[in-house]
Amino acid sequence: MFDIMDRVSYHAVYDDTILSALQFAHLNGFSGVQVADECPHLSFNRIGSTDREQLKAFSNKTGCNLSLHAPDEAVSFFITDDLLLEGIFNYYKALIAFSVEVGAHIITVHLGSPVLFRTDSIPEEPYPQQDRPVYHEALRLGIDRLINLVDGRLILCVENYKMDHETLQVLDRHIGAGDLFLCWDVAKSRGKPEVQEYFLQHLDSVKQVHLHDFWQREGKLVAIV
Amino acid sequence: MIGSGELDFTQLLPILARADVLDYCIEVRPREKALQSLAALRRMVTELDLEEGP
User: Fold this and answer.
1) How many angstroms separate the first and last alpha carbons of chain A?
2) Inter-chain Cβ pairs, chain A and chain B, closer than 8 A
3) Which positions in chain B touch A2 (Cβ < 8 Å)?
């Protein structure tokens, strides 16, 4: 049995450092922080060995948890170019090593999405259909590769942001297998009944939830708050 | 802030409470607003009698 309120963290974005975010969390009744690694001033790559030791020590002493959120489109699973992929997976490798080193418990990723184009008559045309199997394979291989890098040392979560029927199909063979888990951003799943239903059916695999609210007008999102 | 919009947390939280969620991350910024959201969430969890998860 656990108390939900013992598992509530906040999203560290404007904090000066990861350590100061953990200190704020500890002082104010949060269980930890999720670090926005897309913010340069919070990027793990700028943290030296002494500060890493401090992070781990503080986390161990207080029980404050650290989780990391990888950047969005910059490390997309819809990148298909080998040279770009090499950089992306070098990034993931370093992110995982840092997380293990400081004792973080969760890494959360967005899947990304294919690039969209406009035509002279359609404001936003879906990606060229001949690329569909290429994207599908890139996503499949990318997920496999990331799972292998994590190697069970952390909880790896994929967030529902931009998930759709196709991405759920690719993810499905891992969900429930114990090597890939779900992060449910409930506000971002609004208007996506298939995604909502999938998450409800796989609640046992939901290891992280992003909590915020939203406003919409005439069925269209106005703001996430 | 949590509870200020259209998401029905009173319906959502009992569902989530059935799962072994390791981290409920309040993605409300800046952190002072996250802190207010934490208080709002605590009130909801108490009112819904959800203090204990699975």
Assistant:
1) 31
2) 141
3) 52-54
Indicate the burial class of A199 (C-beta count within 10 angstroms; 0-12, 13-18, 19 or more).
buried
Closest in A4, A65, A215 to B17, CB measured? A4
What is the pLDDT at residue A3?
85
- A199-217 pLDDT, tens per residue? 999 999 999 999 999 887 7
Subunit contact B23:A208, Cβ cutoff 8 A: yes
Summarised one tens digit per residue, pLDDT across range B22-39 is 999 999 999 999 999 999
Of A9, A204, A215, the CB nearest to B25: A9
Helix, strand counts (H, E) of chain A? 6, 9
Cα–Cα dist A220/A190, whole Å: 10
DSSP A80: -
| pLDDT < 50: residue spans in chain A | 1
The burial class, CB within 10 Å (0-12 / 13-18 / 19+), for A91 is: middle
Closest residue in B to A65 (Cα) is B23
Chain B CB contacts of A21 under 8 Å are 31
| pLDDT number for residue A1 | 44
Which value does ipTM take for this structure?
0.95
Residue of chain B whose Cα is closest to the Cα of A207: B21
CB contact under 8 A, B52 and A3: yes
